[in-house]
Amino acid sequence: MPLKLLRFTTILLVALLSGLAFAHVLEQPAKMHYDAALYITLQKSLYVQWGPPNIGGALEQLAIGVTGLLVFLIRKNKPGFWFSLAALFALLLAFPVIFFWLVAPANAFFLETTLHNIPLNWTDLRANWEMGHTIRFALQLGALTLLILSLALDSKTVGLNISEIT
Q: Could you tell me the pTM of the whole model?
């Protein structure tokens, strides 16, 4: 895959990924007022479609993998390399670190909980799930910004026109 196409693909995948997390952030104010039954129903119906084996889970792994490949291929290009490496680091903080620390335990809890047996601490897990996605969005948006800066910096350094990249 030519480097220009790889960069375009990387930015596109990370943009789509950050869009998924942004949707969670936009929903958060309303969802924090939902009662347990409605919140858990949403978790067990709507959000299971976002993770593996559906597009959400595959998109995250693909975005991280392609970003890692980009970092490897531009490792000798110092200006863009450092921004791309920082983007990869941000993506790896978002998943697996933040995901498995805050989001995955809440996901498991909500999937196992029945509407007839809701534990009292469900709001703590809701707060973790929502905060986890807010942090993940910030990290993914940061990664997207760093990748765009890397592209702009490298384009300026090697005398490319940004319009040639697409």
A: 0.90
